[in-house]
Design the sequence.
């Protein structure tokens, strides 16, 4: 007989789901944000840097983590990158280029979140910056289904730090063993499991729906 607090597999009933945003809910294409930087290779470069090389350089920038963790302001990040790559664009043009990395389409439909929101509490957990946060909250309807949103730039910690996971767990308002965590990055899924979460690596919508059905959430 099924346990009153769980289901036939013996797993506890899921009371909340924590979901990553990038490459789980929204599609990302970093190359879209980079044309403004491609003519801005390091001094003396004889040709444009490829989009991939520029994005890798941005992620290795000394201020990158600080920007993601809210210790570097959008204006400081703008000044840093435009100086580094030698480009002349306004702050508004920079913001538009930076946000263009986020594609307008979503990988998961609103109808899925609407169904899940009737069964459990939904929480967003993302390593992201203030520019992207403002853009996503203003442009994506899925946000309405997430009463709790944990952003690295707000809590000043990035995954896989336990600090950001603890913030997400507080927002989930449920024991870790009863919280499902979905992320596309395996390192972060494993970190979530170490915190006691029911971690699932996102690969496709079909596989996610299968995982949700196993947990009797669909």
Sequence:
């Amino acid at each position: 007989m099924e346990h009153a607090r769980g289901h036939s597999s013996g797993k506890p009933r899921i009371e909340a789901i924590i979901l990553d945003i990038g490459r789980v809910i929204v599609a990302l294409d970093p190359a879209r944000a980079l044309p403004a930087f491609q003519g801005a290779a390091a001094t003396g470069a004889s040709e444009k840097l490829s989009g991939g090389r520029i994005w890798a350089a941005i992620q290795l920038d000394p201020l990158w983590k600080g920007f993601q963790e809210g210790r570097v302001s959008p204006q400081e990040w703008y000044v840093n990158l435009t100086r580094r790559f030698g480009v002349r664009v306004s702050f508004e043009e920079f913001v538009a280029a930076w946000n263009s990395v986020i594609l307008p389409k979503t990988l998961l439909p609103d109808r899925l979140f609407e169904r899940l929101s009737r069964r459990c509490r939904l929480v967003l957990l993302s390593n992201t910056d203030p520019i992207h946060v403002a853009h996503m909250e203003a442009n994506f309807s899925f946000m309405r289904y997430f009463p709790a949103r944990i952003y690295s730039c707000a809590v000043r910690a990035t995954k896989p730090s336990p600090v950001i996971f603890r913030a997400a767990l507080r927002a989930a308002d449920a024991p870790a063993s009863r919280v499902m965590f979905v992320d596309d990055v395996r390192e972060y899924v494993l970190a979530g499991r170490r915190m006691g979460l029911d971690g699932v690596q996102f690969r496709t919508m079909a596989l996610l729906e299968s995982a949700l059905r196993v947990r009797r959430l669909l």
Notes: The longest strand covers residues 121-126. The domain at 16-28+105-214 is CATH 3.40.50.1000 (Rossmann fold). Strands lie at 16-19, 26-28, 102-106, 121-126, 148-151, 179-183, 198-201. The longest helix spans residues 74-85.
